[in-house]
Amino acid sequence: MKKIRTTVRVTELDTISDIIIRLYKADSGIAGDDYLKSTMAEIESLSERITIAIKADKIASTLDEADVKRDEIIRSLGTLLNGYSVIPIAEKKAAAEKLLAVFDKYKGITAESYANESSFIESMLKDYEASELADSIKALDGVGSYISDLRAAQDEFNKANDEFTASNVNKNESASALKKPLLSAINDKLVAYLTAMNLVNAAVYGDFVSKAESEIEKMNNSVAKRGKVSE
């Protein structure tokens, strides 16, 4: 029985471990094997932990993307206001200067920590809600849209941040750190044991071995093809 390639990605390892667990639970004929029961319990525990870690890593990436999005809107708003402030049209220039005075209070906020930037953005948006600035915002095409976009981007960031905080309550380890012990549990304990037991009693272990080996082979082929493409 072949082992899983060590170059497998953590997400792929998570997938194949879930498949092996499902195959094991579906085979009542091997349920009485204590060693197998213990090994599969270890694999299932590691698989659950790596799933949680992968999810947390994904949420962290989403949080970064949400932060980049709001930063881009802030920069675009500043560029637009600065452009309007030098336009040779008195009415638009005056409107831009009013709005730019507010924007300039928050210079450098994109370099702040997530929490501080969120606080400053909320404050900026509140400033732009002032009734005395409504006419100035209306007078400059695109400004109102950027402000609305910033509100939406900040709400999106807040949601991502809440999910990130919740996910990290249960995350004490990284997915990459869990890869080695999970791979070892499958390759060095499960595969090695099943290989031996299939030789001794194929009638009992053969079906599980055949199905698990087939899934591992499919995964290994996928990993091998990816490696050839990158060469």
Structure description:
The chain is mostly helical. The chain has two domains: 10-56 and 174-230, no CATH class; 60-169, de novo design (two linked rop proteins) (Up-down Bundle), CATH 1.20.1440. The protein is 81% helix and 0% strand. The chain has eight helices and no strands. The protein has helices at 10-26, 34-85, 90-103, 114-128, 134-139, 143-169, 175-200, 202-230. The two termini are 27 Å apart.
Q: Layout of helices and strands, plus pairs?
A:
Blueprint: H1 10-26, H2 34-85, H3 90-103, H4 114-128, H5 134-139, H6 143-169, H7 175-200, H8 202-230
Helix pairs in contact: 1-2, 1-8, 2-3, 2-6, 2-7, 4-6, 7-8
Search tags:
231 residues, mainly alpha, de novo design (two linked rop proteins), 2 domains, 8 helices
Short characterization:
By secondary structure, this protein is mainly α.
Assigned CATH class of the largest domain: Mainly Alpha
Proportion in β-strands = under 5%
Q: What is the total number of structural domains?
A: 2
Q: Helical stretch count?
A: 8
Helix content: over 70%
The ordered H/E elements are HHHHHHHH
Tally the beta strands.
0
The CATH topology of the largest domain corresponds to de novo design (two linked rop proteins)
Report how far the terminal alpha carbons are from each other. 27 Å
Judging from the principal axes of the Cα atoms, what is the shape?
Answer: rod-shaped
Largest sheet: none
Q: Would you tell me the overall average pLDDT?
A: 92
Q: Quickly give the CATH architecture of the largest domain.
A: Up-down Bundle
Which class best fits the helix and strand makeup? mainly alpha
List segments where confidence is low: pLDDT < 50 over at least 5 consecutive residues: none
Task: Calculate Rg over CA atoms.
Answer: 28 Å
Question: Quaternary arrangement of the chains shown?
Answer: single chain
